[in-house]
Amino acid sequence: MSDDSKSKLVRRYYASDNNLRIRHETHEKYTVPRRDYVGWTLERINWRGDEAVLDMGCGPGIYYQRLLDQWPGLRYYGIDLLRSMMKQHPADTGLIQGDAMQLPFADGSLDVVMANHMLHHLPDIEAAVSEVRRVLKPSGTFMVATNSMQSMPELQVLMRRAIVLLTRYGASEIRPPALPSDAFALENGTRILSRYFHSVVRFDLPSALIFPEVDPAIAYLESTRDLREGDLPDDVIWDDVMMIMRQQINQLIKHLGELVINKQSGVLLASDNGGPAHQFIALERANGRLT
What we know:
This protein is α/β, with parallel strands linked by helices. About 40% of the residues lie in helices and about 20% in strands.
């Protein structure tokens, strides 16, 4: 599938916040152990409380209320390419319809830029990272939440098996459609950020999705259709894949009592002399290793 066709599918995916809502609710309901992911993510930064913060790809503003509840002195801005994604955002001001690759902020004007599970959708990730570097203060921090490329291996195995059963191509040629976040995951994201920032620190948060029945697992997969369908072999139809996935998951739940999908998400903090880099430099100076 061409890049233009994939871009249209992504735009269709984000035409409303329904798919994101399904995925968010699935993680909230079925993750074990229970995680306050938003709180855990925000705790990676040592906040002063008066920062200028840009929530890049803010969507419905999942992080907004938590930020303002804990640090009411923050100056919050949210930007999203599609206005439809921001319809449910609780902020009255500071919301911008715009492009993450052309941020409407002055050089060195922001303390924190957040990009939570969104960089992988951009056609030019490095252009967006370069823009973030431009708008951050020298002491600023870029916080990116994303997944590991090793996340959800059980779903990938089941999907590959379904595709092999449906395609005329040999099994050795078949790979399951990539997880959406693979374009900017914890592993390759660290390498990308290190080309623009002196310090990149990675925090991992392992957990699992545990489904006691098939319907929520299928609903979760269907919520990713627009992001993954384009990577199917040309002789395979998404609905047929989902039919076989339902059969496989039903059999596993019948045999094991539940479907366990291990997942690995996390946060990358990138900075020059802010955040973890600042703490490291301060420690080195205190120990006499830097002057």
